[in-house]
Specification:
56 residues; mainly alpha; 2 helices; 52% helix; 0% strand; transmembrane helix; transmembrane
């Protein structure tokens, strides 16, 4: 006996929950040169410290 499951699957909703889907608009703050330099300096110092401890 063969059953046709496609009709059952088409009746079921593929969405989870009842709330409508929405996309939040993410707006990034503009980065400045000072922020970029600070990020580079922190990353460089962290990497240097890690390698110093790792190789010691």
């Amino acid at each position: 006996m063969l059953t046709d499951e496609t009709s059952d699957r088409q009746l079921q909703s593929s969405r989870f929950g009842r709330k409508d889907n929405y996309a939040a608009a993410a707006v990034a703050a503009p980065s400045t040169l000072a922020d970029d330099i600070r990020l580079f300096a922190i990353t460089f110092v962290g990497g240097f410290l890690f390698m110093t401890v790792f190789l010691a």
